[in-house]
Amino acid sequence: MKIFRTMLTAALAASMLICLSGCGVKLNYNYDNADKYIPGDREIAEKIENIDIDYMAGNVTVKGDKMATVTVKETSKTEIDDKLKVHTWVDGSTLHVKYCAAGKGFSIKDLEKSLEITVPVDVKLSDMSIDDSAGDVSVDCSAENYDIDASAGNITIVQHGESDEMEIDASADDVDVTAESIGKLAIDISSGSLKLSADKAPEKSEIDASAGNIEIYLPEKTDMTLEADISAGDFNSEIPFTKKGDAYIFGNGKSKMDIDASAGDVGIKKK
């Protein structure tokens, strides 16, 4: 199932980027309310509570900063015109971010872009959503809900404060999550390793990994019930537990964690 999903993601990306011999790629990219988007870097005066990023290729960074406003900054390998620059639209308290202008049939050659968004460090977002087809994703901020989807590249998340939900879907490379408090956590990795370090175990978590090792760092006094299905690999823990059937019980077993690992070792480490 995961292999099919990965192939489907690649096929969808390929439908947007069609190689043309000798002239780079031709871009077909469409989205709603295209006429409301502004091209290029900008500083946003409005209060932003939600960020929705759709960035087709390139590294994406979202981080807290001492600045009083949200800023959008993009770098590229070559000089580009407005239609190829990042496009943004503020809809109420939601910042929508698109890779470039909507349209079809215009060509790109040797375009390498990266995006950086800064958020006031004292602001807690409601929703943080990133869809990146190719490139590393790095997030260091505070949000109630995270939804991160990357087809290629590493994912690094530093979560501050309390969050209700975090969902990460990675088709390739490694995922590294550092968290304070998460209610519900769902991580799906088609290939690559996972490192999760948390101040306390998420209330409910589901981790699905097709290949690569899983390392989870938690305090020694952890209350968690872990059910792990490991097809090829070993389980080890630095934190004491008791075994009950297929479940590993840490402390009073209050939090629930399910791990499905097709290949690779699973380790519970002391934080």
Measured between the Cα atoms of the first and last residue, the distance is 34 Å
Rg, please?
A: 20 Å
Roughly what is the average pLDDT, rounded to an integer?
A: 89
> What is the number of helical segments per DSSP (H or I, 4+ residues)?
1
Strand-and-helix sequence, N→C? Answer: HEEEEEEEEEEEEEEEEEEEEEEEEEE
Helicity level: under 10%
Question: Which term fits the overall shape?
Answer: elongated
**Main sheet summary:** 23 strands, mixed
- Which residues sit in consecutive blocks of at least 5 with pLDDT less than 50? 1-23
Described by its quaternary structure, the protein is single chain
What portion of the residues fall into strands of 2 or more residues?
Answer: over 45%
Count of beta strands: 26
Structural class: mainly beta
Secondary-structure topology with pairs:
Layout: H1 2-16, E1 17-19, E2 25-29, E3 38-39, E4 42-44, E5 50-55, E6 60-65, E7 70-76, E8 87-91, E9 94-98, E10 103-108, E11 113-120, E12 124-132, E13 137-150, E14 155-159, E15 162-170, E16 175-179, E17 181-189, E18 194-198, E19 204-209, E20 214-218, E21 224-230, E22 235-237, E23 242-244, E24 247-250, E25 255-261, E26 266-270
Parallel strand pairs: 5-9, 5-12, 6-11, 6-13, 12-13, 13-14, 13-15, 14-16, 15-17, 16-18, 17-19, 18-20, 19-25, 20-26, 21-25, 22-26
Antiparallel strand pairs: 1-2, 2-10, 3-8, 4-7, 7-11, 8-9, 21-24, 23-24
